[in-house]
Specification:
- The structure is a single chain.
- A hairpin with a 2-residue loop joins strand 3 and strand 4.
- The protein is elongated and about 50 Å long.
- By secondary structure, the chain is an alpha+beta fold.
- The protein is built from two helices and four strands, in the order E-E-H-H-E-E.
- A four-stranded antiparallel beta sheet has the order 1-2-3-4, with helices on one face.
- The model has no long low-confidence stretch (mean pLDDT 90).
- It starts with a strand and ends with a strand.
- Helix 1 crosses helix 2.
């Protein structure tokens, strides 16, 4: 099994409802995001997926989050936890990859590349992951 990972970051503010502590207050993070793609088959160029294509698609997703108050995004239902942010990035990245046709070969064989996981770091020591397995 092969795995590739790209990373990027964004800055945003948020607060957590139904949380009893300092994170109930508006505050910000410099989020770091890792995206993982796995698969058993390599393309003609010997790659699972071109890093630059994956990074470009990730940047499109993160552009909608960067320098925002995440609580203003309806998807999060006023509770933009790191877990929900990871799921948001996963779903939107999958949509963009599909729109760009980068998932075409993923659908042809189970062993082709597939978006496996998204890690969202609020800090260097605090991470939430959404994965398909």
């Amino acid at each position: 099994m092969f795995e590739v990972r790209v990373e990027d970051d964004f800055a945003a503010a948020h607060f957590l409802r139904d949380y009893h502590g300092k994170c109930e207050n508006l505050h910000g993070h410099n989020y770091k995001v890792f995206v993982h793609v796995r698969g058993e088959l390599l393309n003609e160029g010997g790659m699972l997926l071109d890093f630059s294509q994956l990074k470009k698609s990730l940047k499109k997703v993160l552009a909608g989050l960067d320098h925002t108050n995440l609580n203003d995004i309806a998807y999060f239902e006023q509770n933009p936890s790191a877990e929900r942010i990871a799921l948001y990035i996963y779903n939107n990245l999958l949509r963009i990859l599909s729109e760009e046709g980068l998932d075409a070969e993923w659908k042809e064989a189970k062993k082709s590349a597939y978006l496996y996981a998204v890690d969202v770091f609020e800090t260097d020591r605090s991470r939430a992951t959404y994965s398909v397995y």
